[in-house]
Write a structure and sequence with these properties.
Belongs to the GroES chaperonin family. It comes from Cyclonatronum proteinivorum. There is one protein chain. The protein has strands spanning 10-15, 38-44, 48-50, 53-55, 64-67, 73-77, 80-86, 90-94. The chain is mainly beta. It has a six-stranded antiparallel sheet with strand order 6-7-1-2-5-8, with no helix packed on it. The two termini are 26 Å apart.
């Protein structure tokens, strides 16, 4: 994958794959699949500055996160679908 380093308080997220089947085994067609709202942090920026003070990022590479349905900007890098968004668009870290 091409190297990309997010700036400021932005993060690069690789979304999880959309569900192929329901829990009961029904196959979901492509037109009915919902956008995933979970993913893995691939890269993080250095943090943001506020009133001259640097505020460090709370996220790190490898974190599994939950984000808003329409959060971020979609990118395709070397065939990989990725999202770039602000740290504040992340709703939580999954454990």
């Amino acid at each position: 994958m091409a190297s990309i380093k997010p700036l400021s308080d932005r993060v690069l997220v690789k979304p999880d794959l959309a569900e192929e089947k329901t829990s009961s085994g029904i196959i979901i067609p492509d037109t009915a699949k919902e956008k995933p709202q979970r993913g893995t942090i691939v890269a993080v920026g250095e943090g943001r500055y506020e009133n001259g003070n640097k505020i460090a990022m709370a996220l790190k590479e490898g974190d599994k996160v939950l984000y808003g349905k329409y959060a971020g900007t979609e990118l395709t890098i070397d065939g990989d679908e990725l999202l770039i968004m602000r740290e504040s668009d992340i709703l939580g870290i999954l454990s």
